Amino acid sequence: VLLPLLGFLANGALALLAARRAVGGGRREDEEDVAAGMHARGGSPAGGRAGDHGHAPGSAHGGAHGGAHGGAKPWTHRWPSWLGPGVIGLAFVIAVVNFLRMAGAELHEPAVVPYWQWIMAGAVEIDAALQLDALSMILTLIVTGVSFLIHVYSVGYMGEDPGYPRYFAYLNLFVFFMLVLVLGSSFVTMFVGWEGVGLCSYLLIGFWFTDRAKADAGKKAFIVNRIGDFGFLIGIFLIAVNFGSVDFVPVFEQAPELLTYGGGLATAIGLFLFLGAVGKSAQIPLYVWLPDAMAGPTPVSALIHAATMVTAGVYMVARASVLYALAPAASATVAGIGVLTALFAATIGLAQYNIKRVLAYSTISQLGYMFLGVGVGAYAAGIFHLMTHAFFKALLFLCSGAVIHALHRAFHHTGKDRDPEDMRNMGGLSRYLPITWITMWVGTLAIAGIWPFAGFFSKDEIIWQTAVRAVGPFRGLYTVYWVMALAAAVLTAIYMARLMVLTFHGETRTGEDERRHLHEAPRVMTVVLVVLAVLSVFGGWVNVSESLRKSMVGLFGLLPAAEWLHHWLEPVTELADEVRLAQLGEPAREAPLGGGEVGWALAATVLAVAVVLATVRVISSWKYRLAAETPEPVGLRRVLYHKYYVDELYDLMVVRPVLALSRAAWRFIDDEIIDRTVDAVGLVARALGWLGSRLQTGQVNTYALVLALGVLLLLGVTIAR
To answer: Are 68 and 78 in contact (CB under 8 A)?
Structure first.
């Protein structure tokens, strides 16, 4: 945990030294001023849609470090290349060692390590403590492993950015707070990490804060998350009041005794905690911040979307699984919001042209699947999809970064003012970026749920568990969820195949001059893509169900592990599983429309392949023009392109009324009441001072007269009493 914090301190010191050197060297621009000039890449800074590859104009890679200084980089910009990834890599090694030791010891009880007594509030005592168990171990491996790869990729992607040491300082701090979140032993410690990743998201999304649009995106993410965090706090308060503790171990042990199954208190705790997850994990209605988070550097998008912040809500629900097992209405709400978000976001992804925005709505949709899994009680399936999604979503975002990196460089060399993130300005890039093309197809096939890629096993597991858990009081509702999940899976295959065709296939729309400057990303970036591609292929093989493993899907038993992750997480989920088994009974063995797991798995992959091939064929037959030449879409496509006008609706119903109320409070309450009251007090004091000054004449006889009158007054009062 401390290694990323040490990295933050070291890189932060380097960033401060770099800024001081810039000022001390007499240069007019400091780091942020140079960064502001750098944002002209691909377009004007005001546009807010230029590429973000991190290279300033002017060098063979887009510019010499610092904008125009050229020559070797100063040591303050060389050391972060080793410090930033190094501390995360070392943290990953330690996590692997702990994992191997835990696997050998077969640890069934959590290991809680208290450091100091932190808070005492009445009967509630909270220690600063960390907890290592099966769930936190898996999340630690995911966070440190994927984050390390993103840090390495950033060395090549952000190497020419003048804010390079500051970037790695923020990145290290982000990982530190995420580790606090997943390793905390109580809801309060988790909340510290919860708020910390929110702070870091604000810093990284608004990394180029001199660009107003990017700064606003960071503020939007921060403010929207505060809405959800308010609910999370209420949930923590309810737990503290009713359990007398906020530590995970005593709360979960007492929950079956203190909470009534389906009772109001259990439901309230579950819903308020989930409100925090809705904000942090970008679910309806608080999802609007995540698409705008694309304003930050592309590796930041990969970090937020794949390995850290947005998965925090899913982790929290899985961690509190016993509380949700005791609250079936809250669980049904979690699953319902999740599957609705999955379908809703997938429809928006069909009509977007910004490559990172398509992936952003893809993330929102896939997070919906995770919440569907943990909502129906398939906690291991939800965490399984969280893990595989970290692999293929990091891969997809970093591949998009490689595309943006290449296009910006080409547009810069030819002086074209085009958006390197718009897929209408791409096309036919497979021959220029072969490694990026192949690895991004791997990620696409994984997220589309095609065998034998990782997403096939994890996403289809959630869909299948939704089908067989359509029992109990919400049987009909869960059946509807299952159908919606199937529909979202089809749409996922469509919008991802569309992205690949527009980006890599067909005719090249970049222009003849630009093609000469298109080439693959540096090796430090492509190596990361290959590693993530391998994980996106084989990462799903660790949790193949027994029935699938014995079928042709599992190569008739040749796949190495059967439900390994499910068994690994049993010490964490067994209490919740016992509650669900006692109240709802065993899950069904067939889907609502009939058929077993193997049949539906085969049907799903055949359908996904057919949808991908049909989409490739259809989209390839369409003619696309450059973004600047494309007319505004019409009809349903216009609605989808503008994201159902939800942002405009929020602006009309929330932002503008709040601004109007704030202005009214400023003008009438602040100016007219508070300011006038304060001014009146000042005037009264001034008047009293003026009256007092009239008595200060400087004449002794006047003072003697006043003294005599005072003495007579005191005598009169004394006699009267």
So the answer is: no
